[in-house]
Amino acid sequence: MIENGNQIYSVYNLVVDEQGVRLDKYVSEHCPEISRTQAQKLIGEGYITVNDSIARAGLKLNTGDRLTINIPPAESKTLQPESIPLTILYEDDDLLVIDKPSGLTVHPAPGHSAHTLVNAVLSHLSSLPDTSDWQRPGIVHRLDKDTSGVMLIAKSSTAYKNLTDQFRSRSVMKRYQVLVKGHLSPAEGVIEAPLGRDPRHRQRMAVVEESKGREAKTEYSVIRYVGDYTLLEVRPETGRTHQIRVHLKAIGYPVAGDKVYGVKSPHLSRQFVHASLLGFRLPSTGDYVEFTSPLPSDLETALRNLE
Fold it and tell me: At the fourth CATH level, which superfamily is domain 2-71?
């Protein structure tokens, strides 16, 4: 153990006794408390060195290499409220409906422990219901950091179960406005292709073989053509990670402004994906309600410039 400032780290020093094994694999096999995913994270954040140099997870080791593994202390499981402005579309005793701005991460995660929507909501509410992940209290579904629009948060455990059941049964109506490169034809369609981790880039998602992915279905219809682009209404039936962006790329119409799966645009600083409508049943009454969000100003400006 070593102390660095006020933080105490566990440190392991190993001498490699194998030839050609991947760094992340070797670390996970020789430090049982570290999974391979955790090893990749520690390597990416510079906590593991090879011969005193920072290396990538896929580095092939040589016999005699010296590994230094620093394991930082566990993150505190206390989420702090932060005074971040919220646009609340609706609130009752069970839930909040929020118009999320782009650039705001939904919940804390390793390497991003604060300045999230959860921190903002905790400033508005005294508490949020526990979920299976302590970093996601009250989070029923999520939007990507750079996706704007309507989002739902549960305020009680009973409401959380009711709302997650609605998402699981696919009875929630979700509509997005999405701009893609090219003139998409036909004007209406359905994309059905299983999604899973990209075998070449594990941080990304991709269309994969059915046996290696999860069912995913996306409906779309053309709203209008904008220059060399198409503005779509997209209705994902399932809710897989990055589903809309990956499905549209798969059929040859990448999302404008999407730096990971799409195409860059001088008129966009983020992906053109906006959650424009969310419809569900109120847990307290069973009444069906819908909430909408207009296109934010940055996306409206991009459309005018492209036209």
Answer: RNA-binding S4 domain (3.10.290.10)
2-71 and 172-307 agree in CATH topology: no
The string over 47-57, giving b where at least 16 C-beta atoms fall within 10 Å of a residue's C-beta and e elsewhere, is bbebeeeebeb
Which residue in the list 99, 144, 146, 258 is annotated as catalytic?
Answer: 144
Q: What architecture (CATH level 2) is domain 172-307?
A: 2-Layer Sandwich (3.30)
* pLDDT, tens only, 81-137: 899 999 999 999 999 999 999 999 998 775 567 889 999 999 999 889 888 777 789
**Class of domain 75-169 (CATH, top level):** alpha beta
Kindly report the pTM of this predicted structure: 0.76
**What's the token pair of residue 140?**
């029923």
Q: Are 98 and 118 in contact (CB under 8 A)?
A: no
Tens digit of each residue's pLDDT (9 = 90 or more) over 28-61: 888 766 778 888 888 988 889 999 888 888 899 9
Nearest residue to 40 (alpha-carbon basis) of 103, 110, 95 = 110
Nearest alpha carbon to residue 33 among 61, 4, 69, 64: 69
Active site includes 144? yes
H runs (alpha helix) in the chain: 23-30, 36-44, 117-124, 157-168, 243-250, 297-306
Cα–Cα distance measured from residue 68 to residue 122, given in angstroms and rounded to the nearest whole number: 39
